[in-house]
Design a protein that fits this description.
The protein has 194 residues and is mainly alpha-helical. The chain has a single domain, classed as Four Helix Bundle (Hemerythrin (Met), subunit A) (Up-down Bundle). Helix content is 67%, strand content 4%. The chain is built from six helices and two strands; from the N terminus they run H-E-H-H-E-H-H-H. It has a two-stranded antiparallel sheet with strand order 1-2. Helix 3 packs antiparallel against helix 4.
């Protein structure tokens, strides 16, 4: 594997990320929202996250800029990164599939929203965030650049630490004791650990 191959794997993986999300985003838009929280804050948060997770590494993958921040490339590390990225994509797809039209890009509750606790959601409460972390780690291992490589980790950290507590409060407000019981039997990101 070469740096070019690693960049192309990241690029193809990112295009697959958008291809996975698009049909679920289109379907969920057809379901009315029962409530929506912090729209302006959400848009700002998603814009910053998108910049760090997609735009910064996309510039690097397509142009190699900024070259001054490159560090030595190791093919074995990139192979591990490709595997981590691929698993993250699978988990991303499966999270969307299990949520169906309950999914929303923002802090929204849909009309007839259901608490999803099956599929990957029986193991962790936030498998989509788990997928984000895996993709960011894969990006770090695939892109040997001190700016583009870790940019995804910073973007996901921002999204995760700003949003998850708010998301869980919203779910508690909506589903009450059912969500509290779900919280008691699952972890946030890593089954049995965290």
């Amino acid at each position: 594997m070469t740096v070019f191959h690693a960049r192309m794997i990241w690029l193809i993986g990112t295009l697959l990320w958008f291809a996975i999300r698009y049909p679920y985003q289109r379907r969920s838009r057809a379901v009315p929202k029962a409530s929506s929280k912090d729209r302006r804050k959400e848009r700002t948060l998603l814009a910053i996250t998108g910049l760090l997770v997609h735009v910064v590494p996309m510039i690097y993958a397509l142009s190699g800029w900024p070259q001054f921040a490159d560090y030595p490339f190791h093919p074995a590390v990139a192979v591990i990164g490709a595997a981590v990225f691929a698993f993250g994509l699978w988990l991303f797809w499966r999270s969307h599939r299990d949520l169906g039209t309950n999914w929303s890009i923002a802090l929204d509750i849909r009309a007839k929203h259901q608490l999803v606790t099956q599929g990957v959601y029986q193991y962790v409460r936030h498998p989509m965030y788990s997928a984000f972390w895996l993709n960011a780690l894969g990006q770090l291992l695939l892109l040997p650049n001190w700016i583009a490589g870790p940019a995804g980790l910073f973007g996901i950290a921002l999204l995760y630490f700003v949003r998850v507590a708010r998301e869980e409060r919203m779910m508690l407000e909506t589903f009450g004791e059912d969500y509290r019981a779900y919280m008691a039997r699952t972890r946030r990101l890593i089954p049995g650990i965290y």
